[in-house]
Write a structure and sequence with these properties.
This protein is α+β, with helices and mostly antiparallel strands and 259 residues long. It is 17% helix and 43% strand.
Length: 259
């Protein structure tokens, strides 16, 4: 089976063309594909499946531990880049959290992809510097003095497994607003480690920054460890609508897997 490797700001994925619907992956197969030493290495696996209900294709996403059933923002941008490379020109697709639409703003390699994300209607402020929201995946956002000074493998797991977020847990983002942009580091459940960028976490953190900092701008530049992205939205009725995540999606190469 041929897989195509892409990354979005350092968040890397293995993708396969499953428009014929013949490929079904077990959790063990996903774990072996994503393993950094015994597999090809990736932050997740995605299958581009057949279109339905008027949408051009479907996005089936798996974490490297084999779990699925959630949205991945950088994965969504990468699957749009993959679709474009397959010759697809309609970028309306269905993911685990519902319908999405995207644009390829700059073609080539890397591509610049603007991805429409789900509306967010429920933002919970859990403390003076802590927010919780679901942007297709659950995220805890914490404002700290210096995200780069933290040992995420030490400070993030107690939050990721906090009983408040049981039974499924949460991703954890440590952020700082630097006056012109948002710095972020994210610990992802399913990966159980820091990733160089997390699209849904970047979206969640941008919304939290808008609230926490009292910003008057609705397009937030974000600096992740793997690259720069931006989040745009329209605040409305205590939530956020017309949400878009924009950033690079780059094709790396292909691998052949015996699965």
């Amino acid at each position: 089976m041929k897989f195509y490797k892409y990354h979005g700001a350092g968040n890397d994925f293995l993708l396969a063309d499953n428009r014929e619907g013949r490929l079904h992956l077990s959790a063990d197969q996903v774990r072996r594909l994503c393993h950094r030493h015994f597999g090809f290495g990736a932050d997740g696996v995605m299958l581009l499946g057949p279109g339905r209900d008027g949408y051009a294709f479907t996005m089936e996403y798996y974490n490297p531990d084999g779990s699925g059933g959630m949205m991945c923002g950088n994965g969504g941008r990468c699957i749009v880049a993959f679709a474009a490379d397959l010759g697809i020109t309609d970028f309306r697709f269905l993911a685990a959290d519902g319908p999405h639409a995207a644009e390829v703003l700059q073609d080539g390699n890397p591509k610049t992809v603007r991805l429409g994300m789900k509306d967010v209607t429920d933002v919970q402020q859990l403390g003076p510097d802590e927010y919780f929201l679901d942007t297709g995946t659950r995220h805890d956002v914490r404002f700290v003095a210096d995200p780069d000074a933290l040992d995420l493998r030490t400070v993030a797991p107690p939050v990721r497994h906090d009983p408040r977020f049981a039974p499924v847990g949460t991703n954890v983002n440590f952020v700082r607003w630097d006056g012109g942009s948002l710095r972020i580091r994210t610990f992802e459940k399913g990966v159980e480690d820091e990733t160089l960028a997390c699209g849904t976490g970047i979206v969640a953190s941008a919304m939290a920054a808008w609230l926490h900092e009292g910003l008057d701008r609705c397009e937030i530049p974000v600096r992740a460890r793997g690259g720069d992205l931006s989040v745009a939205f329209r605040p409305e009725d205590g939530g956020f609508r017309a949400v878009c995540l924009t950033g690079p999606a780059e094709f790396i190469g292909t691998v052949e897997a015996d699965i």
